[in-house]
Design a protein that fits this description.
Largest sheet: 5 strands, parallel
CATH architecture: Alpha-Beta Barrel
CATH topology: TIM Barrel
CATH class: Alpha Beta
Strand order of the largest sheet: 7-10-11-12-13
Radius of gyration: 20 Å
Number of domains: 1
Distance between the termini: 11 Å
Shape: globular
Number of strands: 13
Length: 357
């Protein structure tokens, strides 16, 4: 898509074709220190896209009196970020901001979102071949969020929006959010959903002790809960055109989704109104997408088996260091076709976010 003055840059520059990799169907990547890594799959230069890349806007943090921490400073350093992308082989990063503002009052939330979205536009416009972004919205005020997401698309050209895994304790499947989901469906936006942890369990002490369990378990658990509610409460049925990318490979749901099918058979009287399809079907039908933060080829192979390769996109979780080898993970996972690798590395994300390949 083309971009006029003031619009966010969702168009990447054309990349020159890389030399063939000798016919290796598993793909390859070559670079020298300090140079941009080029990813090739069976002779085809692939534009890689990272859909899970954190960002922050210090001016927006100030609205709520939140201090700018060390990690925040890293996220604002575009030069360091691009160097990391070059080293990893990431051509385009889709920037997102974890929602820390879901408790903010209406006026503060409106000002904060305005500042954030305008800042994201500026970042992407400055380097349109390397960055796109997910718009932010004040989802705790659903009517305002609808206005914000429409403005983000119509004024700034955003092709995606980010949300948390819940909103100040309220599930995303709550009917109060139906107008927001309807707007996302109408605007054909990709929704990036990032969890905020399970604060209810934190209060009980179940996640205290060693292991940083509030994050290690809490984040994927919240994603699992959120997706399960979206399925069982009928949100995905109500909005069949909705597209949601769940961070951290969808949490635990893809690994144990067949239990959700089984509960419909085993305890139909306790499930409530049945979803229109088997719960596992929602993992494959083009409504739910997943990033690659899985850590091992076997884990990615299993996710592909449960969802299909067209539902998966690269995610790095920059700058938090969970992984810096997502490109190699995709290249080294067995039993993927060339088309599968190309789709996961960037093809699917480019299509959903309107990135020129």
């Amino acid at each position: 898509m083309s971009n006029g003055p003031g619009e966010i840059g969702f168009v990447g520059c054309a990349l020159s074709a890389a030399s063939a990799d000798g016919g290796q169907s598993t793909g390859s990547a070559s670079h020298s220190h300090g140079q941009r890594r080029k990813v090739v799959v069976n002779g085809t230069r692939v534009k890689t896209v990272d859909v899970h890349a954190h960002c922050v806007v210090p001016e927006a943090l100030d609205i709520l009196g939140r201090p700018t921490g060390k990690a925040d400073l890293v996220m604002t350093d575009t030069t360091t970020r691009i160097a990391a992308m070059d080293e990893q082989g990431i051509d385009v990063s889709a920037l997102s901001i974890n929602p820390y503002w879901y408790d903010a009052e209406l006026d503060a939330a409106a000002e904060l979102i305005k500042i954030q979205n305008e800042a994201l536009v500026e970042i992407c416009a400055a380097t349109p071949d390397r960055f796109v972004a997910f718009a932010t919205v004040a989802l705790q005020h659903p009517d305002l969020a609808v206005e914000q997401v429409k403005q983000a698309v119509k004024t700034h050209g955003f092709r995606g929006v980010s949300v948390g895994g819940s909103v100040a304790g309220v599930e995303l499947a709550d009917p109060k959010f139906h107008p927001f989901w309807a707007a996302c469906e109408e605007l054909d936006l990709l929704v990036f959903m990032h969890p905020q942890g399970t604060k209810e369990l934190e209060a009980s002490g179940r996640l205290s002790g060693n292991g940083y369990l509030t994050n290690t378990i809490g984040n994927p658990l919240e994603t699992t809960i959120a997706l399960s509610h979206l399925i069982f409460e009928g949100t995905l049925d109500r909005f069949p055109g909705l597209k949601i990318c769940a961070a951290h490979a969808g949490g635990y749901l893809p690994s144990y989704a067949h239990r959700s099918d089984a509960v419909c058979r085993t305890f139909p009287d306790r499930v409530g109104p049945m979803p229109k399809k088997a719960p596992t079907s929602y993992l494959k039908d083009g409504q739910l997408y997943f990033d690659t933060i899985l850590f091992t080829p076997e884990a990615l192979r299993h996710l592909v088996a449960e969802t299909g390769p067209g539902q998966i996109m690269v995610g790095t979780d920059y700058p938090f260091g969970w992984t810096s080898t997502e490109i190699d993970l995709v290249l080294n996972t067995p039993d993927l076709s060339d088309d599968d690798r190309i789709a996961i590395l960037g093809g699917t994300a480019a299509q959903l976010l309107g990135i020129d390949t």
